[in-house]
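re: ur question from earlier - yeah i can do the single chain one, its not a big deal. heres the input i used so u can compare w yours
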Amino acid sequence: MFFLSVLRYALLVLVPLCSILTTYLYLYPAFHLCAFPSPEHNSRSEYVNTLRQHAPYASQDGSKVAPFRLLALGDPQLEGESSIRDANAASFPNLSQFWKDALLLDGTKHNPLQRLRHSLHDLIDFYLDDIPKALEVYRKRLDHVGNDYYLGHIYRTMHWWTDPTHVTVLGDLVGSQWIDDKEFESRDWRYWNRVFNGGVKVSEELASQPSDDFQDTLVLGEDAAAWKKRIINVAGNHDVGYARDLSQDRMARFTRVFGKANYELRFQLPVNSSAVNRENAEVVEERAVPEIRIVVFNDMNLDTPVGSQEMQDETYGFLNKVITTSHDVNRAALFTIVLTHIPMHKEAGICVDGPFFDFFTGEFGNGVKEQNYLSKDASKGFLEGIFGKNGNPDVPGGGYGRNGVILTGHDHEGCNVYHFMNHSSPMRQWDATTWPKALSAGIVDKPGIPGLREITVQSMMGGFAGNAGLMSLWFDEEDWEWKFEFTNCGLGTQHIWWLVHILDLVALGIGLVYGGILLGQHVVEAANNSKSQMAIGKPKEMRVEKRVQIGTIYANGHGSNSIDKSAVSSTGSRSLRTGISMMSLDSKGPN
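and the output i got, formated as tokens:
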């Protein structure tokens, strides 16, 4: 059968191809050699150690694994109905109007010619307008569903493969701050049930406010399973709006669904769980306890003009508390991580995005409409306030401030930047360059040049290759300070996800059809064999019985009740028919 042969050859091609592509898609971090950085700074060792945690009868080398591993994801931007043009076209409005005009359901009085003209016009609009638009609406809705599962695939696969201790999403969780509450709830459900299925927000009990007598310090490594599920959500412009758009209502719904916008977390690393030698235990007791401070900060209304002065005062109030409750700049073993959305200021050409501000006019009160970076003053507040950096070498700590890093989103292309200030320069002001250039120029950790690294995580959206950031933080007992490293792992465009699953569905469909045809053929063949056996067996019995009856009747016609035994025995090996024929001839005599 030609059709069956086509299906068979199609399966011979598709099954191996789908197996390879599906294996790649669901193990892409392994194929891309993705792994959290380690204290060894050896990519091969990092990958092998990650691989071992998934191998049977093998385990990781704990000394090569950082105690704090942050999976950082940027700007998922879940779209919805508001992004679909002519979404009501799916209800076929022109078809509804056709029935109204044809049957005069709307109460209008038209003569037959007018009714015909209006009805034909409605039908034409239905075919040429409603149907194409409805198909586009359904295509967009399907695309939203696929995008949700594409993003969810990145989160689940990276979470399973790399085994992070903490997870953060750096703003723009949804795609628009202007959506109504109903649409916001819809995207909220998709966020927690498709994209980050199994994840939970950081509870209000854990999201602490800064204070001088901070009592909520956590132990790094305790409650590890729960922290792996918690998502540290950062507010972005598409979640709550820029400075002019930001309102109490938008902030309230964000807080209710995704958690607080401003809070801090503190983790201490127990000495006995770090890589500290027991021989140095007495020295360790005299040193500061290793501590990580995570500041989750909404920087959407740091710049002016704003829509709500009260909310801006709250933001600056929180920022001031973070500054005033910080440890002394001379304190060792402290590392500060700031998670926020809008990046720090930098000159054009360093990153893909350059400095940009746009403002509302007229009825909107000239508020901030859009911005790529924070202003210079706001950025300076971060560097000199939270981290204690300073251009004056005579201040405590020599102006080097606190150790730490800033993680941001917003710029979908991502950027890896080093902010620094040269004490020897007559114009002591903050400058920035890319991290690779800073390393090659030797200005990182150079005496007289305080600096801080800022990492803008590339977006996890399909249009930007589905990225995930991996930041490792470990404690160096020799220098008695925290050290970190960051790397990126990308899946690729969302078309890869679509292609693999479409091919899998096609192969599955062909396999079902092929199997159905084979099963049908088997059933038909079995039925035909059964009929053939019945047709072959029954006629033989009838013929034998008939021949015996004929012989008996003939014998009875001559007054005999049975066939002559001597006649039958005389035939020897001859057939019964031969014996009967001979009996018939013998019985005929001369008249």
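The chain is about 45% helix and 15% strand. not sure if urs matches, ping me
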